[in-house]
Amino acid sequence: GQQLNQSPQSMFIQEGEDVSMNCTSSSIFNTWLWYKQDPGEGPVLLIALYKAGELTSNGRLTAQFGITRKDSFLNISASIPSDVGIYFCAGTNSGYALNFGKGTSLLVTP
Amino acid sequence: NAGVTQTPKFRVLKTGQSMTLLCAQDMNHEYMYWYRQDPGMGLRLIHYSVGEGTTAKGEVPDGYNVSRLKKQNFLLGLESAAPSQTSVYFCASSPGQGRPLTETQYFGPGTRLLVL
User: Which has the least CB within 10 A, A13, A61, B15, B98?
Assistant: First the structure.
């Protein structure tokens, strides 16, 4: 599979702060996805992006599909304790074979 | 709707033993997948199926076999377990009919496997 580089690896922030993370690839993708995994659970889809330059929001989460189609960004505004978890980016061209990043671990202190 | 369920939740095997992991979905999805997740790694695709009776290899298929005899079930088999197969295994399913549905994969809670 294609290698996705996700950064940062981990973040430790205070409640109320904004969070930014990104994902880059050596190859272009037609679709970028962002998942969240809570401890002991499977990943849950947060946002799907289908077009270069697209900006999509889901509540306090906003994700962007990079213009080059080789990167994507996820922002979380006004973080809360339940935002804790691991955030994964994934890219695909086939529609079913997802290439995952290694994840960004987010810790939020009250 | 239970969504995607996996059995068992946790298992310990000795090297060389065999076992089958069961995944079931009640959403009438066409596509099903098996991933493994290792510490500090993203999920890597082992095998997938685009319909009943069909299977295909993913990124890391060696040492695993799969079967999809019924649309709602996807089985992952380890014929001779090795310590390198210690991992958390996730099953997922997706509707499989055109964008955006194919990318919307729903994951099960995972099976934690330890091979001694």
Answer: B98
For residue A20, the tally of other CB atoms under 10 A from its CB is: 14
Nearest to B84 by CA among B105, B113, B109: B113
**Are B100 and A48 in contact (CB < 8 Å)?**
yes
Residues of B in contact with A31 (CB under 8 A): 99-100, 103
Q: Give the tens place of pLDDT for each residue, B51-93.
A: 999 999 999 999 999 999 999 999 999 999 999 999 999 999 9
Is residue A108 within 8 Å of A14, Cβ to Cβ? yes
For B40, the closest of A45, A48, A102 (CB atoms) is A102
Alpha helices by DSSP H, chain B: none
The CA dihedral of A76, A79, A85, A89, to the nearest 10 degrees, is 0
Contacts of A103 in chain B (CB under 8 A): 40, 42
Question: How many C-alpha atoms does B64 have within 13 Å on its Cβ side?
Answer: 28
Task: Please give the torsion angle defined by the CA atoms of residues A29, B37, A47 and B108, in that order, rounded to the nearest 10 degrees.
Answer: 130
Chain-wide mean pLDDT for chain B? 92
* Angle, CA B41 vertex, CA B39 and CA B43 arms, to 5°: 110
Please state the φ and ψ torsions of residue A6, each to the nearest 5 degrees: -115, 135
